[in-house]
Design brief:
- The chain is mainly alpha-helical.
- It is 60% helix and 0% strand.
- The protein has one domain.
- It contains four helices and no strands.
- It is elongated.
- The chain starts with a helix and ends in a 19-residue tail after the last helix.
C-alpha cells in the first residue's frame, strides 16, 4: 500500500474521530493529492502521527541492527512495534494502526 493511501486512511479516521460522531462515516477513497479540502486538517494530523511512528520504529530497528544484526531487529517488530504504535497514538491523540495491501495477519486490516 502506498504511503498516500495509508496517510489518507489514517486521516479519514482522524477526521471522523474529531467530529465527535458516534459512528465513523464511510469516506470514499481519493488519491491523497485529490482529497477534499475539508480533510486537510485530518491529513496533516495523520502525517504527523505517521512520521512520529516511522521515526521511533526506525530508530529502534537501527539500534538493534547495530547491536546484533537482523535477528535482533526482527525482535523489535515482534516484541515492541505494537507498544510503540500505541504510545505514538496516545501522544498524538489519534488512533494509529499498521496495515498493508498484502496482509500477513487479518488482524491488521484497515478499519
Amino acid at each position: 500500500m502506498k504511503k498516500s493511501v495509508i496517510t489518507f486512511a489514517l486521516a479519514a479516521q482522524v477526521a471522523t474521530s474529531t467530529t465527535g460522531a458516534a459512528q465513523p462515516r464511510l469516506e470514499p477513497s481519493y488519491p491523497l493529492d485529490q482529497a477534499p479540502a475539508r480533510l486537510t486538517a485530518g491529513i496533516e494530523i495523520a502525517d504527523a502521527a505517521i512520521r512520529a511512528l516511522q521515526q521511533r520504529l526506525s530508530a529502534r530497528l537501527l539500534d538493534e541492527m547495530k547491536k546484533g544484526g537482523p535477528a535482533r531487529a526482527i525482535s523489535v517488530c515482534r516484541d515492541e512495534a505494537q507498544a510503540l504504535t500505541a504510545e505514538i497514538a496516545r501522544i498524538q491523540g489519534v488512533r494509529v494502526g499498521r496495515t498493508s495491501d498484502r496482509l500477513r495477519n487479518p488482524g491488521n486490516a484497515a478499519p
